[in-house]
Amino acid sequence: MAGGSVPSTARLEFAKRLQELYEAADRPDLTAVAKRSGVTDRKGKPSNKPISAWMSPSGHHPGSWRTFRPVLRDLIRLAAEERAFTARNAALGDEDQWKRWYQNAVSSGRARPAPAGFDAACKTYFAQLRRRHAQLAVVASPHSPVRPDPLRLTDVFVAPAVRPETPAQGGGLGAPPARRADASASDGWPLDDGRTRPAFQVLAQEDARRIVLLGDPGHGKSTLARYLALTLADAMDKDHEVDADLAPLAGALPLLVELGAYADPKWRTGTLLDLVDRLHHTQGPGLPKDVLDAYLRTGGRAVLIFDGLDEVFDPRLREEVTGEIAGLAERYPSARLVVTSRIVDYQHAVLEREGFRIHVLRDFDRARIDAFVTRWYRLAFPEQPAEAARLRERLLAAIDDTPAAAELAGNPLMLTMLALRGEHRDLPRDRRAVLEQTVSTFIAQWDPGRFARDKRVAEDAGRLRAGERMELLRRVAHRMQTGAGGTAGNLLTDAELTAELDGYLRDKLPPDRSPALTRAMLEEFRVRNGILSHFGGAMYGFLHRALLEYLDAADLHHRLTVERSLTEDALVHQEYGEHWNDPSRHESLVLTAGMVEPRVAGRIVDHLLAADPLWFVRLSGASSREIPHHIVLAARCLGEVRDPGALPAQCSAVVSAVIALIEHVVAERAQAGSPVMLAVEQTLPPVFARLGARCPAVHRLYYDWYLARGQFLSVMREGENFAWFEVPPAAQVGAALLGDHPGFYENLYSQAAFGPTPATRLEALRALVQERPDDPRLAELLRECAEADPDGDMREGWVRLFALARRTDPSAARSLRHWLGDDDTYLRRGALGALVNGWGDEPETYAAICRYAADDPDPEVRLTAVRCLASGWPGDPDAGAAVRERAARDRDPNLRADLFPVLVQGWPDDPRTAELLEDVAAGQAEERWLRNAAKQALDRMRPGPVRPDAALASYPAPAEDPRITALGPLVVDRRADARTPLLLRERAEGHPDAEVRVAAVRVLATGWRDDPRTLPWLCGLAASQASESVRQAALWALGSQWPGDREAGVVLRRIADGKGESRTREMAVLAVTAGWRDDPDIRLLLRRLAVGLDATYVRTTAVRMLGASLRDDPATEELLRERAERDPDSYVRTAAVRALVLGFRTSRTGDLLRRLAVDDPDEFLRAGVIHLLAAGWREDPATGELLRRIVADGTEATSRRAAVEALAGGWRHDPATEVLLRERAADDSDWRLRRAAVQALADRWPHDPEMHALAERLADDM
């Protein structure tokens, strides 16, 4: 070590070695190397100048390892092809050696001459730093002996990710993040919102010299601070290499200051530098003040790490310390400053005013969990690699398969506990057992005696048995969940926690001794992270929210079964009855349902399902914003029972309730991505997977409904001049529930290929990807969809879905690279997005995306590539430079405008973002609309004042729904009254409001299903002269609540077999098919209705039901073929055609479709048949011949356009197709056909500027 610098020859060494590699590669064209590697000039063009500068002794080194690595790998590949590597120059082909040369070059030549005594003081300081922090501070597992060789922190550490944080109003960031109210236990790994970055990238970037790192207990703030100090100490003292992300900091002096020591009164007489000086003179990790000051004043490079600002408890002293840190930043501009703190009570104003940027530590994602577990077991069992690998696989499998373990594993300390536990026993696969074991592990290492100043206190602590500690924790959890903030806060003040601890200990110890043990416990919670931890300020809470929720549930169970202070009725009616609509209590209630006897759990589920009988009214018009918590919670509670199959009635009731919910979100047109849709799509499938595996009886209930109804549900949305369809996640729910049901999966494959809308096909494919990602048949189907779908946006989506399903398949990346080189712009866009999501860590990905961002001829592909840079490498300086380059100089002004908000979101703190936008906004050479776009982006960077809540309160509250007014008092307040069913029947029959009458029918059918008077009354109502909406409600209630019942079936058949066109008859046909599919009389009824000529829509429904539900009957195919060719109505013929392709994909069906494509009298049916032929019978030569004949010789425009689109997809690689389309593009006799041909050529064949321009002109003429 010489003044803290790496020898200045390192830069010369790097240039020399790179020149030698260039020679070994036979001096390739550097411009070609730059193009392959994504190296560009300031205008975004491939350039050899940066590479030449790297090879020059007087040039500069690469700005980042990510930029240099693709060039390095390209040169190594070329040299290997030349067979240029020998024993003498083998190091030139070693990437690890290159990383060392690069790191030395980056850190060379930066240090000033060190002051006298600096080297000696540093050696002493580094030795003390290693002595104190080199070993990982890990609690011992109660099932393992003390480790003979403690793990080294630098060996096991995994760097976390961080996210820039916008401070909350009021001067602080508030309470720690709690579980989202709408989150479920099945939530996956933390989502990257585009701003998450590796922590060391943030710390090392050039413009991030003042950083605050915030995190909750257990997230590794102090561990990160210590690792950073140790790593930089080794780089400075021993010339050790550092992580590539930290390479810019190599050679800098790391000074770790633990602020908790400064809070001690004995240190409080001086400044922070005085503290460092005193530590040096008392054998601690410190430096002489005069030496440190001289080094920093002369511009010495340093990283000053102030760990634990939250440990300075006195608010006034903390404010003084914060001000002093800010002063050090001004006094020593060459130093980087890093401050760590817990989130609670962090006051950002002072440091933010001095230019400090706030970042929050994120939970570990799956990759970091894998890295930590791998290192842990490799180091724990160094002599047993096979055992280390086995334990690693076992723990990771448990984390992947158990949502509770996955939730805990995101917290680094909790992951450490799981790894310790996994050394000696398998991790349980159910959530309750995982949490129980974790709590037991924490209890076993909870030792307040070590913080006692009195021997008697230590002895008292040792007498507390594990069961008593558990009881104490349950008591604290109960206090939290009944406090003013409920479990949403997860916190108690020190006074509240003291009261709880002392209140319990007074019953166990003499009154004069309990306060001392209470103080010792609080001290332990403050000093070290355990099951209860100090969150900052005067606040304490459980280390992880899941621990609080488990202990809350354990307290309920203990009071029910041991203390007997809670009755079964009180549990059901008070705990569940009063809190089912409070999401902050859901996790505790779900866990409790898994702890109690199945009989009690059944009562809980029954009560929950009946808790909100008017839920469908409350969600009316607001279904996108609200969740029917009683249904979702009932399903989750049932899924938590050890054997849900022991509760078949509840399983059926829950499945019926979810079916009603899916129907409801369609009827109310709930938006995709809304809370209620996400609850159905994300929360319910994992629960249904457990129900389906344990209670096969519910398979038939859902499958029959799906065949008759679920697969056909959709919502049409309308734009200004276009429309599209959305479908509910019925297929995804069914895929989870039905397991390997062969009929269901065949239906999904058929829907994926032939579904009537893109949304239908997408939903089927999502369900298949969810349950069968490794199925080769699925991979092939996704490839076909990506290649042949006539909709470009869908082709892009299929590529991304293919990559999602096949992420673990090595051949998937080859497929993506193939599509990346395709002429089809949509395939290129899909491949770019898929690569950044699944293969973003590979250097070739970054280089490829940079290349396409700069060079692709299509502006939409360039835009996609730039957006991929922003989402895949948010905040990264190199990526930011590439995005700025496109935003400043791209030849397409629309693309530039689209990138302004991308820059604002991804690089808001980079001053160059504002500079670029200001230049565009003020540039007179720019078009006005582009200047305005830049101004709008600038406005988003400088938000105005927040509107007061009073402005929002000016809107009048919505009036109460008349259905709630009329029915609420009955079904809520008087539910147990024997007269309530009678009053509801009166409302259903005589209320003047039709919506109230319908709601009364629904409430009676579900809430009073077991009343013997309900079924006969509904049968009579369905057959009465009541309004059609009331009769339909009665019919659907009969079909959904009494499937298979003889009395209900007779009524439904009679109404379905009536006369005339009516929606009521259609409803009866649907209901009777869903509930009585195997009844021979129903089969005869459907066949009779399918050929009856009195009602077109009834006939259409019967044809659809035959095709969906009776595919196993040979007579069905013949009837469908007859209807497809001979029915006088096109709606019926269309339904028959779709039923045939979904259920009878045979050569005979292909022959029929080819006839219909030419002979059917309806032009839209002919066009639809053409697309079906292309999707299912592409391999038959007769199909391609027919389509070419239609395009060349046909006279009807709609069919010809459909044939053009089909040929452009499935026959794109046939040279005859391009010739034919170019002929149509030159023919202006039919402008619609010409536009279709031109658009197909522009999208899917090599870039032709004239064709693209023509496509845009024709589109503008619409």
Task: Explain what this protein looks like in three dimensions.
The protein has 1262 residues and is mostly helical. Among the domains are: 9-107, no CATH class; 118-167 and 195-362, 3-Layer(aba) Sandwich (Rossmann fold), CATH 3.40.50.300; 379-444, no CATH class; 446-566, no CATH class; 840-944; 959-1043; 1146-1262. The protein has 64 helices and 12 strands. The chain has a 7-stranded mixed beta sheet with strand order 2-1-7-3-6-5-4, with helices on both faces. Helix 42 runs antiparallel to helix 43 (893-906). The protein is globular, with a radius of gyration of 35 Å. It starts with 8 loop residues before the first helix and ends with a helix. Mean pLDDT is 84; it is low at 2-8, 139-148, 167-194 and 944-955.
Task: Itemize the secondary structure elements and their pairings.
Layout: H1 9-24, H2 30-37, H3 49-55, H4 65-81, H5 95-107, H6 118-133, H7 153-156, E1 161-164, E2 197-198, H8 199-204, E3 210-215, H9 221-238, E4 253-258, H10 259-262, H11 272-281, H12 289-297, E5 302-307, H13 315-331, E6 335-342, H14 349-353, E7 357-361, H15 366-380, H16 385-401, H17 403-409, H18 412-422, H19 431-445, H20 455-463, H21 466-482, E8 492-493, H22 494-505, H23 514-527, E9 532-536, E10 539-542, H24 545-561, H25 568-579, H26 586-595, H27 598-609, H28 615-618, H29 629-640, H30 648-667, H31 675-694, H32 697-708, E11 715-718, E12 723-726, H33 730-738, H34 742-754, H35 758-771, H36 776-788, H37 792-805, H38 810-820, H39 825-838, H40 843-855, H41 859-872, H42 877-889, H43 893-906, H44 911-922, H45 928-941, H46 949-953, H47 962-973, H48 980-990, H49 994-1007, H50 1014-1022, H51 1028-1041, H52 1046-1056, H53 1063-1075, H54 1080-1091, H55 1096-1109, H56 1114-1126, H57 1130-1143, H58 1147-1159, H59 1163-1176, H60 1181-1193, H61 1197-1210, H62 1215-1226, H63 1231-1244, H64 1249-1260
